[in-house]
Amino acid sequence: MRAEAVLYRTSARFFALFVGCLVLAFWPSYFARLFEQPSWRFHLHGVALTLWAVMLVAQAQLIRTGRRALHRRIGQASYVLAPAVAAITASFVHYRVAASAPSSPPNVVAYFLALTLNSLIVFAVFYGLAIYHRRDAARHARWMISTPFPLFTPITDRLIAAHWPSLVALAPQIDGVRIVPVFGFVLADLLLLGLAVWDWRANRRADVFVQALVVLALYHVSVLTLYRVPAWHAFCAWFLGLALP
Length: 245
Hints:
By secondary structure, the chain is an all-alpha fold. The chain has one domain. The chain has nine helices and two strands; from the N terminus they run H-H-H-H-H-H-E-E-H-H-H. The chain has helices at 2-26, 40-64, 68-100, 106-132, 137-146, 153-163, 181-203, 207-225, 230-240; strands at residues 173-174, 177-178. The chain has a two-stranded antiparallel ribbon with strand order 1-2. The protein is globular, with a radius of gyration of 18 Å. The relative contact order is 0.11. The mean pLDDT is 94.
């Protein structure tokens, strides 16, 4: 039980750090320019993801302090918020990419759609498994802790560009575009691996974090390979041709 208490206490700090990094990463382009955004879509996307990140902090803190009834009520609100995050982000990606796709290399478009859309699939899988196991508190908590990992790269990309620009030149390229998200991939994989090792040593279990790491690694591989697959290019053309709101 002591190890589980450590997990809940640490997860609250992890989520708080995630929120802090999110605000820091998006401060120059969004939070400091709230009234300068070119479309309401930026606000919808920003509000949905910020609410999700803040909810993670609140939920972990409520469990840590024993307020389980309120935790369950907020958890029920996530049944709406989580699908909204996925749908709003998919629509936002469509809006941004459809406008620039005609002037962008097809491989770069295919790579970016794999990066963004597949991250939403992994997020949905992790969240769905957390809800499926909501009556198993330990398993539920571990899947919820895993949900930020597929969302790392929008944050790490911006932090690297702002604070460690020398890393950009070390990233691999696709048609001349530096694939900076690989650094976020490595960070997410190492953190999940560390959680799996801790869980095994503390609790003699690592099933959830290992499973999450496998799914996350498959997502990362898909980003670096799907742009070479003709069927993925066909899917991208179909997606960008949709009349999304």
